[in-house]
Write a structure and sequence with these properties.
This protein folds into two domains: 87 residues, Arc Repressor Mutant, subunit A (Orthogonal Bundle), CATH 1.10.10; 52 residues, Dna Ligase, domain 1. It is built from five helices and six strands. The strands form two sheets. Strands 1-3-2 form a three-stranded antiparallel β-sheet. A three-stranded mixed β-sheet has the order 5-4-6, with no helix packed on it. A hairpin with a 7-residue loop joins β2 and β3. It is globular and about 45 Å long. The termini are far apart. The structure holds zinc ion (2 copies). One zinc ion binds next to loops.
Length: 149
Amino acid sequence: MMNRTEAAFTPESVTEILRREGLRITCNRRGILQALFKSGRPMSLQEIQSAASSHEGAHPDYATVFRMILLMEKLHLVHKVNLQRSCSYYEISDPRKHYDHLICRSCGSVVLIDIPCPIGDAEKRIAQQYGFRDLSHSLEFFGVCATCP
Ligand SMILES: [Zn+2]
Ligand SMILES: [Zn+2]
């Protein structure tokens, strides 16, 4: 194992990554990043758009949010969470970390699972057996949370 200190995952570090990808960091895009980092839960594109607008000077249109999220998803900086609702939900994600979720069917609360991925080994076996590389997955468990009757 390499023993190097890893850079913190912050709006600034993500801005740096996006800049290296050739994205111009406008006020709107800064607002979108702030919105993603501030929210403790997955958000729809619409929610990201309106949350971004509370950032000073930011009024991103839907297309700007859409394109930026698409780019960030490609770079593994956001992760799509399947909430089994009609639109897609996204959350900010550190590309070095892994994100699986527990979702309450009753109140809709979303909890990030803080244990090693339960299907990490299976993913490796699947990749091997089918000759796929760079696999990723989205794993959501649906149930009823402790505070719901
Ligand atoms: Zn609940
Ligand atoms: Zn997983």
